[in-house]
Structure of L-threonine 3-dehydrogenase:
Amino acid sequence: MKALVKQKAEPGLWLMDVPEPEYGDGDVLIKVLRTGICGTDLHIRSWDGWARQAVTTPRVLGHEFVGEVAAVGAAVQDVAIGDLVSGEGHLVCGKCRNCLAGRRHLCRSTVGLGVGRDGAFAQYVSLPAANVWVHRAEVNLDVAAIFDPFGNAVHTALSFPLVGEDVLITGAGPIGIMAAAVARHAGARNVVITDVSPHRLALARKAGATLALDVSSADIGIADAQRQLGLKEGFDVGLEMSGRPEAMRDMVDNMTHGGRIAMLGLPAEEFAVDWSKIVTSMITVKGIYGREMFETWYAMTVLLEGGLDLTPVITGSYGYEDFDAAFDEASSARSGKIILDWSA
């Protein structure tokens, strides 16, 4: 089969012929239809410091996907050949304290699909049946392909109650844009999102952001946005999606007393924040990683069934043979989510 492989410990990816993945009694073999390109995949392609630490070559990349079940192991009961499925890309041990308590997203032994084991940038992928999500309701294939990052957005946005709240999102990457759409759909009063890319801010407006601020411009800042919206005490909920020190500091400065911050953005290095302000304003900061298995997946499906539209965040689609062009677009500041089509 064809697959996108990190064949060598150097920048680049290779489209290669590799054996179809094996599957055991508790596994599912999936014919891949569409995949989404993630920031993780971009890091591995460029072979930066994180990728050199996290990935052993050769490795088939990819963890955002939708496909059709091609075969199931003898012990699989709830997944059938022909089912349309996506996959939870965090494979957990099932035996640690958190796993046994039903908190699988907190497993300390998590292995990432497409990072620690061969992934879904291929014509077929194998997963444990426990990691397979069957789409019982009708869903757009491109949207189904990005359930993984959609789950990050939902997990972050729904960490705190949103009905009637004023929400600040720092970082208008694809997950930040999806989080803005989720927040509005879930009942937030105002959703303000910041970034330095006019293209991505325009996508955020289409997704439902009340205000989309270019913080590289001196024309209007977050405090100005508060005045424009008539906010007197600051934002109730913050969703930090950028991993940028200045974004986190701006967020802390603009939260109301007792405000709550969910932090998904992963910083490149340590940075300082004003902890005295966090303490004296009684601000809650919660770290977010991945999705709650599988509560977030239920929430995603219900949000889509309730009319949430994610299509504005998808800005490009390529056949897998054109992966270099797809990755180039995904790495620009002009794109939303980019899809690779494997159905051919």
User: Anything to note?
Assistant: The mean pLDDT is 97.
